[in-house]
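Problem 12. The chain below contains 271 residues. Write out its predicted structure in token notation.
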Amino acid sequence: MEKEKVSIILPTYNRAHMLEKSLGSVLAQTYPWFEVILVDDGSTDNTKELVESYEDERIRYCYAGLNQGAAAARNFGLERAEFDYIAFQDSDDVWHKDKLEKQMMALKANRKAGFCYHKMKYDFGEGRYALLPDERVPLIKKNGRIYDQLLYENMVSTQMILATRECIKKTGLFDLEFKAMEDYDYALRMAAQYEAVFLDEVLLDATYSDTGVSGNSVNYLLASCRLLQKYKTDYLRTGTFNHRVETILGDAEKVGLLKQFIQLLECVLQE
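Solution.
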């Protein structure tokens, strides 16, 4: 295989206790031609010392300063990426060793596609897990033009993505207005402009964290409302608007915030 290099962006904040497994899974890839742009978003633990202990020239440690969140950290990495393919990793997730190799092969074999993604196993603990994308979604809706299906439900998390530089450049940076679900917004913007190629196998293991963005219900719900507002025209066009509203209200009811988010959605619907 031609040795085309990949820039892998890995943001972290006080995750030294998890980073060793995450970073190690990247360094162990069967496709070894890459750089890891490790963006330290202001950690106060031993993150820097851990990274420096690897003595691997493929790692670029970048201290980003104050803790500004995942979107800003990924943007910091994107602005420093040097190669023609770009991937993302999170500091608490684990790549399967052949993830990058399989994605590179698939993306190069599908020149119309701007990005490649795959299945992810999301571990909730106590033997409970979920697969993303949902297994019930037909394969035909996971490949090619997936924008309309993405409007119905998210199928693409950032760490599942390998994209061409052209695709990333046209999509732009992550939206800093999102305190959660910035990956969903980014996937929508990518899919609105480029075809996707999907690998129907689990190539990444992710873990739910109630201390991270995934565990903040209010940020999640606020971001869901912002997405509804931002893509309102397309939600209405595809007949998925009511589905998204029902999903938001259902999630709000689970955390005892139904009344507040009914009021917020009324404001969104009036705009």
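Discussion. The chain has two domains: 6-212, 216-270. Students who got a different answer should revisit the alignment rule from Section 12.3.
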